[in-house]
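During the reporting period the student researcher (J.K.) took over the structure-prediction task from the postdoctoral fellow and processed the backlog of single-chain submissions. One of the processed entries is reproduced below for the supervisory committee.
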Amino acid sequence: MDGYRSGRIAEIVPLLAAFDTAATEGHITHAAAVLGVPQSSLSRRLKSLEQILGVALFQPVGRGVALTAAGRDLHERTRGALREIDDAVHVVRSNADPDSGSVRFGFPLTLGPVSIPSLLAEFHDTAPLIRFGLVQAHGEALCAMVREGRLDLAVVIPPPDDLPTVHLGTQRILLYVAPSHELAGRTQIDLAELAEERFIANPPDYHLRQLLETWCKEAGFVPQVAFEIGEFETARALVAQGLGVALLPVSERRVVADPGTSRDDPVGIPLAGHRDRDIGLIRGNHRPTPAVARLHDHLVRRAGAFVSGGR
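J.K. obtained the following structure tokens:
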């Protein structure tokens, strides 16, 4: 068997976790807190690594520290390997007890009130010892967290092209107007009819905002956005007050609370053409733990729960 090129590898490896944490945090005190060790112990480990390598890895910057050129080179070359080691240890520990473990799970803002809580409740009945770290955000933010390893699984609308994905269903997009709006009695709307309307829309990095701009461009106009907001229920409230119209998915909360429409609710009107979004379950490009795989399989089996109609 070939030996290691560095004769002092056994000394270096135990110090790399301290180096990686300090490099990531940019502050010795903060890094020591993350590792749960005294600051003096962390400082000694970093000094030992610098002495073994014969180069300075950090330089003071204000109240924190920054990597030297040698430090940046070492961090770039070792951080991926350390993440793989951490992932391997996490998998092995989880495999020791397939009924426990933890799952970092994300889901979109529009599926929080009903679909996801109901499915998690079903899963919890079969696996009560599995712990969850839940994140609710818009699709691109969730995709970034899965890519970076901060989430194990996420339901996103729509799914990206670069991550393992299972199609779960579709989400219908409707035009919402105030009950007093002249279009409120219509059974269908062509987007070209909305060229003079003022829109309430999500921020530009939301997929629904991008759809609005794309669909309106195809209809021959640029939407006039009067209000930007990321919270969907507040957007509905603004529509109900007559401050603008909006393209939104059906509200799960309102459908469950009252299948009918109250006089204070915005009115949803189907749009002409295909106006659905794909719902996908994504995971990272690494081996899932048994707990993660178990939730993944549960969500795939219950994919029918994600189909949204045009009510």
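The committee noted the following: The first helix runs from residue 9 to 25.
J.K. will present the remaining backlog at the next meeting.
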